[in-house]
Q: What sequence folds into this?
């Protein structure tokens, strides 16, 4: 069973940057599609970005050009670099391992001045 732990969240001003990490343990995620989702208060959990084993990425329209998803197979970890953050990016961010169906506990991002 894969355990996922997200980190890197926090409070940031509009226009700022953060990098989220999703570290896996228990099994390798190197052969799995990995995805970031986010859930704002009172809203459904939405797709943010995904990365295939080949490194090919896909982004939600709302974050394209601002967020970059990458993976480090040696560290069994994926990263979400978030630039030019906006108040509407405020949410709890979750990572998901497609193969195992595992979810992390989430990390809060708050974008506010």
A:
């Amino acid at each position: 069973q894969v355990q996922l732990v997200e980190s890197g969240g926090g409070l940031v001003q509009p226009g700022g940057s953060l990098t989220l990490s999703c570290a896996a343990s228990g099994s390798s995620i190197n052969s799995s599609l990995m995805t970031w989702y986010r859930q704002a208060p009172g809203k459904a959990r939405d797709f943010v970005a995904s990365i295939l084993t080949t490194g090919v990425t896909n982004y939600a329209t709302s974050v394209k050009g601002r967020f970059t998803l990458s993976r480090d197979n040696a560290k069994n970890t994926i990263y979400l670099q978030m630039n030019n953050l906006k108040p509407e990016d405020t949410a709890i961010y979750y990572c998901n391992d497609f193969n195992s169906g595992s979810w992390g506990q989430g990390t809060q991002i708050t974008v506010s001045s």
Notes: The mean pLDDT is 97. DSSP finds no helices and ten strands in the chain. The longest strand covers residues 18-25. Residues 2 and 100 are 7 Å apart (CA to CA).
